[in-house]
Amino acid sequence: MVDRLFLAARLVAETHRRLVPPLPARIPDTRFGRAASPARSQPSPHRRQLPINHLGMKRLTALLFGLALILPSAGLAQGETEEDKGAFISEEWELHDWIPIHLGPIDMSINKAVAYLLLGALCSCLIGIVFMRVKVGRDPTRRQALGETIYEVAQVSVAEQGLPTQAIGRWFPYVASLMVFIWTVNMLGFIPLPLSDERVTIAGVELPTLAIFAATSTLSVTLALALMTFVFTHVEGIRANGSWKYFKSWIPDVPKVMLPLIIPLEILGQLMRLISLSVRLYANMLAGHMLILTFVGLIIVLENVFLAIVAVPAAALFYLFEVLIVVSVQAYIFAALSAIYIGSAIEPEH
Prior knowledge:
The chain is built from ten helices and six strands, in the order αββααββαααββαααα.
């Protein structure tokens, strides 16, 4: 840690030395046989004068470049050796137990992924209360307009596109809640929050450092969400059609000789729904965070502060792309596919 801070200080000093020219030496005054004092020496009219704030801007630029290296090093690469300078990128997804809870072979411990999920559930409830439970007036307010937009997207673009008409009343709350919850958890993953495993000591008190982490970038979370849809799909299919009719609907009309080949493929196709639904959300959120951390980590791994000129704008560009597009698209796709799977189980002939 000290070596990295020392290296960053050397880089800042070297940058300052290259960017800021040395002050001109005193002009000798031969008339009196001594060097002229600063008050008597006058600058040559042919010497180019720098703007008043030119040196200050260069010093500020050098300082910002130094901070771009110091802050990631202090927050993410503390205690690393020379061989594993970039190990902090993969360590971000190591979940350490905050409150160990073990029920036999089942691990129910509280870690940062669980903390993000609890916070996401609380924020999702607040979104529903703040934007949905509003008094409808003649002139809608911005809060009412936003709440109606969320409701319309969930009903028209998700529920009505995948669920049969008679099943919307039963399953619309699930798919709408799923969309809002996943969007909230995804968005929280791009807001720096003090919910990391790293600690910093301030005034003798250990506090968690600010970090970005998406709970949906862990496979266990997305697999649990997909497993709910998987179970609800088959339970609703059996409830609506009966066990025999529902499972018989999996098998297409083919010659009987093809059944030993078709039946395993149909069962595998049902299992692939579970895998694809979970891996799609997991892979997209993981890739976004990995790209952002990789661009920032280049400054640390290569120990070159000038890489910030390229790495920081690239990381900011991917950050905006994830926040503005990927977060909402992935929440919509997960909820829409859940509605389609449940609807296809209710009406398998369609």
